[in-house]
Amino acid sequence: MNADRLRSFYPHAGFVLVYILWGINLASLKIGGREWDSLVFNGLRFASMIPMLWVYTYFYYRSRSLKIQIAGRDLLLICGLGILNAIGMEALLQYALQFSNSANGAVLGRGFMPVITVLFALIAGQVRLTWRILIGIPLALCSVIIIVSGGVDGFHLGGETFKGDILLLMRSVMGAIYLIGMNRLVLRYPLPLLISLEMTAGALSLLPFVLLRADAAYYAAISSTGWISLIYTSLLATALGFSIHNWSLAKLGPFKSSAYGYLLPVTAAIAGFIFLHESISLYQCLGGVGVLAAMYLVQRDRSQKVKQTLLSEQTAKL
């Protein structure tokens, strides 16, 4: 019984690790962003992982005497999710922030994703509302608003940010769609194949930007710090982060998985304090406590059993 309880804790620990990696990655992106064009950076980030991912996928299948195969409809879905992730989420976030601010991005671009996900799940009959969810999700959202509300660039709505805010909300909708679509696939296929296909589709969608915006002189001007930022983002934040994320997603389902997104402002603030010597305000401390309390409520809600009728032996092997 104790062993079963310990195993059930693994996907939760996986999401905590993911958002630690992604929180550090925000600091890394700030450092790398001083030198890199964002679209070139993300294009190289996706493309640099493709050889490693496909080599690993090949040996994964070979060691298990499996054939690499995927249904045509699912192939279109995973490629679509890869493009959605690379352009519809990453690039849209970058573009939307040109018309809004980072605080609004944290609330509208990420904070609303669990809210939208639970609405989709309710419509699909995958979850039912309980008192823990009714308290936990609003508490988490309000806590994120508290975290990002301090200072002159805190969270606020108005005509000057309206265009960017609408785009940020679209990004949250796309994030919910990504979670639900990927949840369907991780129950059918091994993660190495899905990650390889997703990153390949994302890299191909960003390839034109890399070719048009960068040349040999551009790369030569990048310092060693800039390259270290790219390596961290590619290997740890993206390859390792998305692998753990999607493995944990298969165990918890899209709703509980999306709720962990509220940890990002907390881990990002801690990473900024450690690596960028940024200060941590009382707002951030209070908001962080609220986020952790909300996570406890949502993840303790044992009644939320997402329907996973496609769960197979493949999932157990991962």
From TrEMBL:
The keyword Cell inner membrane does not apply. Pfam families: EamA (PF00892). Belongs to the EamA transporter family. This is EamA family transporter. Residues 15-148, 163-298 form the EamA domain. It comes from Paenibacillus germinis. It is a multi-pass membrane protein. Keywords: Cell membrane, Membrane, Transmembrane, Transmembrane helix.
